[in-house]
Amino acid sequence: MAFSDPQSTDLIELPDDAPIQLFDLKTQQALIRPALEQRWIDILDHGRFIGGPEVTECEAKLAEVTGATDVVAVGSGTQALVMPLLAMGIAEGDAVFIPGFTYNATANAVLLSGGYPVIVDIDPATFNMDPADLVRKIETVKAEGKLTPRAIMPVDLYGLPADYSAIQAVADAHDLRVIADGAQAFGGKDQGRWVGNIAEITATSFYPTKSLGGYGDGGAILCQDKDFAERMRSIRWHGTGDNRKESVRVGINGRCDSIQCAVVLEKLTLFDAERARRIAAAAVYHERLSGKIDLQVALDGQENGYGLYTVRVPNRDNVRAKLSEAGIPSGIYYDMAIHQMPAFAHLAEPGSLPNCEAAADVSLSLPMHPYLSEGQIHKVCDTLLAAIEA
Ligand SMILES: *Cc1c(COP(=O)(O)O)cnc(C)c1O
């Protein structure tokens, strides 16, 4: 069964009886493989494996696509979170506010920078940072007087941008910086603006299964300030100045390989069509499931990039088993809130972030990639709905 969306017709649609996968990198690879092989040959020939022309080209292309003022390609999404914190001079005693339901990298990045992650509860409908709890947490930190509030690091979970209108207003009122963790959200939009051009600074990841992935590790910092981007370029090369020898500040090896930038460049040629197909797939899920299952809710003017399609099901183990019996994979992102992990347990009391803990019990990610057929999505929905009612 074919999608009616005309934008989606230039991409392959898998046969309805093909195995259903959570992600599908193979079908995509077939589309870019000849161009990618040529790019790899070019890199083997020019030999600039680090800092080759692909890096500058990839940064320029990402800026063009998203509308960001400047883009710095780095070695991973985690580096893209740590480096802006270093550049801002985050240090011991500084509070950085993060949501408690996210990938562990968000918390790790703050701790690695020397800052203290203050965990904020989420809005159960969006899975993203709850601006009302953010205000409470900032006021508590200020009243206690032990930490200095410095920055907010919202996460665009599953591809849905956080509530940046509300969060930016809070940041302005308290003079805080905003660093968006958009690792899952390349292709998401808010009021027509791409992730990467919503917050002043956005980190994204090119981990292979993200909506824009490489064939290895990589990431990027997208920002609205050229001077800040130049500081990132220095930090990326051990904090050196123009001669790349003398460190003028503390930095790290934060570089993205030429090869990964080449992969991202080729994947960008498909990205608009892939994004349209993710949205078309989500529309089928939405139509079949809304009113029957709790779905992730976008706020007015927001577009989910659908890195993942995630629902809430109370009897999750049972539902997963039924899906699995029917040959349908599913994923859990995440079955623990941040403060439920041993490394971060000191950051918040059990029970103190009820919406994060509840989300960890019920979130279930369904197959989502641009090559799913409409028939495959109906099969997922038929099986899921039968499992819920059972
Ligand atoms: C994947 C991810 C990261 C880390 O990205 P890496 O490239 O794996 O370092 C950070 N935050 C979130 C929310 C992620 O999903």
Question: Mind explaining what this structure looks like?
Answer:
There is one protein chain. By secondary structure, this protein is α/β, with parallel strands linked by helices. It has 11 helices and 13 strands. Strands 1-9-8-5-4-2-3 form a 7-stranded mixed sheet, with helices on both faces. The protein has a 3-stranded antiparallel sheet with strand order 7-6-11, with no helix packed on it. A 3-stranded antiparallel sheet has the order 10-12-13. The relative contact order is 0.18. Pyridoxal-5'-phosphate (PLP) binds at residues 76-78, 102-103, 105-106, 155, 181, 183-184, 205, 207, 217, 219.
Layout of SSEs?
Elements: H1 25-46, H2 53-66, E1 70-74, H3 77-87, E2 94-99, H4 104-113, E3 116-120, H5 131-144, E4 148-152, H6 164-174, E5 177-181, E6 189-190, E7 193-194, E8 201-205, E9 219-223, H7 226-236, H8 258-289, E10 294-295, E11 302-303, E12 309-312, H9 316-325, H10 354-362, E13 363-366, H11 374-389
Parallel strand pairs: 2-3, 2-4, 4-5, 5-8
Antiparallel strand pairs: 1-9, 6-7, 6-11, 8-9, 10-12, 12-13
Helix pairs in contact: 1-8, 2-8, 3-4, 3-7, 5-6, 8-11, 9-11
The protein binds pyridoxal-5'-phosphate.
The site of pyridoxal-5'-phosphate has 15 residues, from helix 3 and helix 4.
Biggest sheet: strands side by side, in what order?
1-9-8-5-4-2-3
Termini Cα gap = 27 Å
Helical fraction: 40-55%
Q: Low-confidence segments, ≥5 residues, pLDDT <50?
A: none
Shape, per Cα inertia axes: globular
The rounded Rg comes to: 21 Å
